[in-house]
Amino acid sequence: MKKKEIFEVFFRKKPAMILLALKTSNRNRYGSVIAKEVDCTYSHAVKILQEMEKNKLVSFVKEGRIKTIKLTDSGEEIAGHIERIRDKL
User: Fold this and answer.
1) What is the three-class DSSP state of 12?
2) Which CATH number is 3-88's, of 1.10.10.10, 1.10.10.60, 3.40.50.620, 3.40.50.2000?
3) Which residue from 77, 71, 21 is spatially nearest to 32, judged by alpha carbons?
4) Which residues have a Cβ under 8 Å from the Cβ of 48 and sit 6 or more positions away?
5) Per-residue pLDDT reduced to its tens digit, 16-75
6) What percent of the residues of the chain are helix, what percent strand, and what percent coil, each to the nearest 5?
7) Whole-number Å distance between alpha carbons of 17 and 1
């Protein structure tokens, strides 16, 4: 089994990839950019991000008409753990 396949056994692919995409960026991100990076629809990415917001892993920052997304401290910590697990696999 390939590394990528075994990683997906333990984690749902899109939510884990969204957290990792947010972690690798030093700036706030847009939902549409994240959706493209993890290869899913905008609506699916937003649905995942809303669940993450409910669980205080990400926060939405409204700047005019645009909402950016950033990891909270908890989200940053969890993304770090996921990244280390992925690297070990």
Assistant:
1) coil
2) 1.10.10.10
3) 21
4) 14, 15, 18
5) 999 999 998 777 688 889 999 999 999 999 999 999 999 999 999 888 888 899 999 999
6) 65, 15, 20
7) 19
